[in-house]
Amino acid sequence: MTTHGLKKRLASAAVYLFLAVMAFLSVFPFLWMVIGATNSTSDIIKGKMSFGEGLLVNAATFFSQVNAPLIFWNSAKITIIATVSTLLISSLAGYGFEIFSSRFREKLYSLMLLTLMIPFAALMIPLFMLMGKFGLINTHIAVVLPTVASAFIVFYFRQSTKAFPHELRDAARVDGLKEWQIFFLIYMPVMRSTYAAAFIIVFMTAWNNYLWPLIVLQSNDTKTITLVISSLGSAYYPDYGAVMIGTVLATIPTLFVFFAMQRQFVEGMLGSVK
Amino acid sequence: MNRKTVALAFASASLIAITAAQAAEVTVWCWDPNFNVAIMKEAGEIYAKTHPDFKLNVVDFAKADLEQKLQTGLASGVADGMPDIVLIEDYGAQKYLQSFPDAFAPLSDKVDYSGFAPYKVALATLDDKVYSMPFDSGVTGFYYRKDLLSQAGFQPADLQDLTWDKFIEIAKVVEEKTGKKMMAYDPNDAGLTRIIMQSAGGWYFDKDGNLAIEGNAALKAALEVVQKIQTANIFRPAAGWADWVGAFTGGEVASVTTGVWITGTVKSQPEQSGNWGIAPIPKLTIDGATHYSNLGGSSWYVLAASPAKDEAIDFLNDIYGKDIDFYQKILVDRGAVGSLLAAREGAAYKSTDAFFGGEPIWQTFSDWLSKVPSVNYGTFTNEVDSVVAAHQPDLAKGASVDDVIKAIDEQAKTLVQ
């Protein structure tokens, strides 16, 4: 073996080692969570790293303390509505920014991107007052509304739209399609990987959304699963087993969506139009 | 396909139902499903027996979440969806009372405060008005393993009137004779410092609520004790709460000095039954030093803007202000030691506990409760406390107490201003 070959092999060994460590660091919390769901609180605190026999007990505790169907329905409802409306509204905006030009376009666009730099905590109190004026405190509408025009998703759609062939639009026009028809019948199907990638991002954000629902939802029957898990975990003597059950259950939908749409997600990130 | 997507969007939108809470019932925010949430529900059921129209809606959030919500709600001035009664941790009480004047209803006209532990009343007093219905107490005790201490030659009678210096001496003997450390201690937590400081009537703030770090005799004496404990190496280091709890439940240490709310945790190990005793905490040797202190605790507050304000106050006063039987029930069911001194006349408080060798521990704690020195928790206790906690490890490295106090003072001043 030449020194050159040895060096190469050493280098790739180092790369694999690095990747293995990183993969372990990413997977470990999941493993810890699943193991925790089968152990008692005292075992979890002791750091027991093997599966226990407490799964059913933990599940019983969780389901007796939490009105799970209602809470998951609240989360699902908010997530589905937020995802569909965000994708629709933000993609329309992204498409519009790229396709239609005007004197103010770039200025408006920069202004919109600037809003990405304002931390949400700074907007919270004015937003809360606004929702108070609308009489929407403690409603799921109030949770969804501030998210539907997402600057990041608009940005993402505008970037992706740059790859959308203008010939397609021109051809559609020649065929007599109206602007909205071009958007729904031509643009949407062509850009489906972009939609898929955006879907995953928006879905996860909405499902895991914490701070704003926390502020605006005031009663037990409107709460989402993230709020319930937080409240379970903050007791003076929390039942960590039950918390882990809740966390596992709350992770399943995101995992499912991610694995179901993984291929499209990667395609979408690489640029969707082939 | 696309039309379907649009149709789905509209269909889903119509599914959002407005679920705004309606008044005419009393809404309470608190944070522990097994503790204050359960106790509040119990209180509501008792009150409803004599007030059939009364409806109580207890909403639980994580404590930090609740504080964030309360802060946002009060700061924005939107009364919509705010609760009628809210639980606030005692250390933060003055912050809310002073930052949001008029947000909370004074209860002094309705409630007879002479029946409560004086320090619980003082901490919720602002401009001669009292705003809280005192709830759980963190009156402190020195929990010790009788078996280990007697093995080291100390009987319960020897432990009733300790000073901290004597405590450290005993600790050395205990380790020599039993091989166990006297206590578990987390140098990054200032809980013990607070306990010792309040036992001598001191706090991070003076009686008027001004920052009092330099020249604070109680704080200085407390930090000296903390330094001695660390340099004498009489403790088993604990990394965080869970590890600290594990040290005494696992039988690794001979004692624990903390709030009465730990009793349930101490008792969670049935095989140690009969081996535990309680004594007053050791005291300092400065002016005003006592054997009594407090750690944690919380109280109920009524929001002034609440449409059900009168009902809420009447409810709190009837149950938490007078009902001795209620206090027996929450002691037995939830291990909650309330702040109403008359509760000690009930059967549960008078009962003895085999786990503690047949001592009437609740009567004892209730005695101590009435003697806890009153202090002003000020507006920034949690902020200053984190500064103190950050500087405690320096004491182990040999920094002088005066230098550490100076450093704490400088940093605390920037936080408080």
Mean pLDDT of chain A: 90
Oligomeric state, counting identical vs distinct chains: heterodimer
Greatest interface and its residue counts? A-B, 44 and 49 residues
Distance between the termini of chain B: 60 Å
Q: Which stretches of chain B are low in confidence, meaning pLDDT under 50 for 5 or more residues running?
A: 3-23
The CA-CA distance between the termini of chain A, in Å, is: 43 Å
Tally of helical segments of chain B: 17
Spell out the CATH superfamily of the largest domain in chain B.
Periplasmic binding protein-like II
Envelope shape of chain A: globular
Rg of Cα set of chain B: 23 Å
What is the CATH architecture annotation of the largest domain in chain B?
3-Layer(aba) Sandwich
Number of continuous helical runs of chain A: 15
CATH topology descriptor of the largest domain in chain B? D-Maltodextrin-Binding Protein, domain 2
Instruction: Describe the global form of chain B.
Output: globular
Structural class of chain A: mainly alpha
In total, the number of strands of chain A is: 0
Helix content of chain B: 40-55%
Domain count of chain B, please report it: 2
**Architecture of one domain in chain A, according to CATH?**
Orthogonal Bundle
Secondary-structure element sequence of chain A?
A: HHHHHHHHHHHHHHH
Order of helices and strands of chain B: HEHEHEHHEEEHHEHHEHEHEEHHHHHH
Write the SSE topology.
The complex is a heterodimer of chains A (274) and B (417).
Chain A: H1 3-36, H2 41-46, H3 55-65, H4 68-99, H5 105-114, H6 120-134, H7 140-148, H8 151-161, H9 166-174, H10 179-190, H11 192-208, H12 211-216, H13 225-233, H14 240-260, H15 262-270
Helix pairs in contact in A: 1-14, 3-14, 4-7, 4-8, 4-11, 9-10, 11-15, 13-14
Chain B: H1 2-13, E1 26-30, H2 36-50, E2 56-60, H3 63-76, E3 85-89, H4 93-99, H5 118-122, E4 125-126, E5 129-130, E6 132-145, H6 146-151, H7 164-178, E7 183-185, H8 191-199, H9 217-231, E8 235-237, H10 240-249, E9 255-259, H11 263-266, E10 276-279, E11 294-302, H12 309-319, H13 324-334, H14 347-350, H15 361-369, H16 381-396, H17 401-416
Helix pairs in contact in B: 8-9, 16-17
